Amino acid sequence: MSDADPRARASDAREDRVEGTLLGGACGDALGVPYELGSAPLAAGEVPRMIGGGLGPYAPGEWSDDTQMAVVIARAAAEHGLRTVDALDAVVTGWVDWLASGASDVGTQTRQVLGEVAADVDGARAAERARLASYALHAQTGRTAGNGSLMRTAPVALALLDDPAALGEQARAISGLTHADPLAGDACVLWCHAIRRAVLDGDVPDLAEHVVELPHARRDQWAGWIADAERRTPSAFAPNGYVVTALQAAWSAICHPLGDGPLVVASLSAAVHAGDDTDTVAAIAGSLLGAAHGASALSAEWLDAVHGWPGLRADDLRDLARRVADRGDPAAVDLQVSDELDEVAEHLVSRGLGEGHHFVVHGRPVRGGRSSEYIGLRVLDDGSYRVWYSGDRGTPRTYVETPDWAVARQRFVDEVELLGASRGDWKAPRRHRWKRR
Fold this sequence. Notes:
Keywords: Hydrolase. This is ADP-ribosylglycohydrolase family protein. By secondary structure, the chain is mainly α. It has two domains: 14-327, Orthogonal Bundle (ADP-ribosylglycohydrolase fold), CATH 1.10.4080.10; 337-423, no CATH class. Helices cover 53% and strands 6% of the residues. Strands 3-4-5-6 form a four-stranded mixed sheet, with helices on one face. The protein has a two-stranded antiparallel ribbon with strand order 1-2.
């Protein structure tokens, strides 16, 4: 046996897990469709089947909006990656087209946000307009923590397998295109990091280990929710339209498989037996199970039957998943940060201001997670600089977009220092002004 054989086997196994991420979510979705909100009876201990029906005229094996929206993200990721404004615009315009042509059983919140984007005849800056609509809805209602962004988040993990620093940021950003509540973003960050580790390691990770990727203020709360899911069975978390209980139900199903069959089948059976939003809980659980165990662990009967908008079947999802993972930039973003951004970040650190706590420079990894409020700095696609404020509530507020680095740098430093001083955890020395070293 040649030395290359073990490497080839490892590569094949990883590819199987990449394919399993999309296929597992789709199979869970189609398995849960018939039983949503009690649409079909399911006896205690009964293994669910892809019999179609549910809340729409679904054919046996047909997936719902959970996978439909994930496919849109995956297509944009395969074409553009998920790092740029153009990529996020492609995601939103893809969703708008889907809403007009093939959407089924669309969540009220998602429909409202995308409807506002569709009503604007100017197709430019679609992601920005979606985010504005999403945050406006959150400001108006305070209730935007549905499970509709978590159900579709798996392709984000595939697009950024080699870049954990960017993964959390983009998972939260794509969640916020329709679901502005910080808890929805937290859930997407947690699940994407878990999927990434599952694909890379070939096993279901300890979800609680990933709370370090969340803002400090909410880590203990999420750790408690995860521990609760590990103690109780999935039905304890119904109703599960709320993003926290949806994640808990999915994680509980993985921790408490139902029956003596193959592990993936038993865990997805448990997810459907959670009741209520059965297709979404099973889609969420299926994406992580597929990432950990691979497409080869899914039932052949399921793979033969699963299909859906826009005319895709299992082999199409295999191909799409591979293209998303292949398109992901293998070089981590922190290796691409320009010298001037590195320099200003190190300057602030040397002055006692916390990276991830007071400020974030896009592309530099944040060790131990981010605050819920910070000042951001990034280079835009056209080479200009953006300085903005990000907080838990409301649209991220841009302070300045300029091609002049000196202007951007000074505004960034000033705003970071103001934030640090306002929190009372940092005191500015006298007569400070930025000096290049």
